[in-house]
């Protein structure tokens, strides 16, 4: 649990350039023509990043102390917000390949399946976040 807490703290405190920010490409980057090699590297990075996030979600489930629960909850909510933001870029070229869309949706399923996934955001009310997931 000590390493998990350290990883979660690192992911959440390194704002504005967090590892989670790699999930969401700026619109200019999404629209730009990129080479075949860059595209393959980006797809592999996306795949591994979603896999890491899903692993962290699973590993955070047995945490019981208050501090760890708060960290895990903040991670879930932040991940949910990033995945929703990523999904909103539906015209982005990276969604033309269905594996990218599938990974994003699978990540959304993993995060929303956990209890209290929407309750740890300082910026968005839980009900508002749930509504965004249902309507956007």
Automatic annotation (TrEMBL):
One of its GO terms (biological process) is ciliary basal body organization. One of its GO terms (cellular component) is centriole. This is Rotatin. It comes from Hypotaenidia okinawae. The lineage of its organism: Eukaryota, Metazoa, Chordata, Craniata, Vertebrata.
């Amino acid at each position: 649990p000590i390493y998990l807490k350290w990883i979660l703290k690192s992911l959440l405190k390194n704002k504005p350039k967090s590892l989670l920010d790699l999930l969401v490409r700026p619109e200019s980057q999404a629209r730009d023509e990129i080479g075949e090699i860059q595209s393959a590297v980006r797809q592999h990075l996306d795949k591994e990043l979603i896999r890491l996030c899903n692993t962290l979600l699973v590993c955070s489930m047995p945490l019981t102390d208050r501090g760890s629960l708060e960290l895990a909850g903040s991670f879930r909510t932040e991940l949910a917000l990033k995945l929703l933001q990523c999904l909103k870029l539906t015209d982005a070229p990276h969604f033309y390949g269905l594996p990218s869309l599938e990974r994003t949706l699978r990540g959304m399923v993993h995060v929303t399946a956990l209890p209290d996934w929407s309750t740890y955001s300082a910026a968005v009310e839980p009900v508002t976040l749930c509504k965004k997931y249902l309507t956007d």
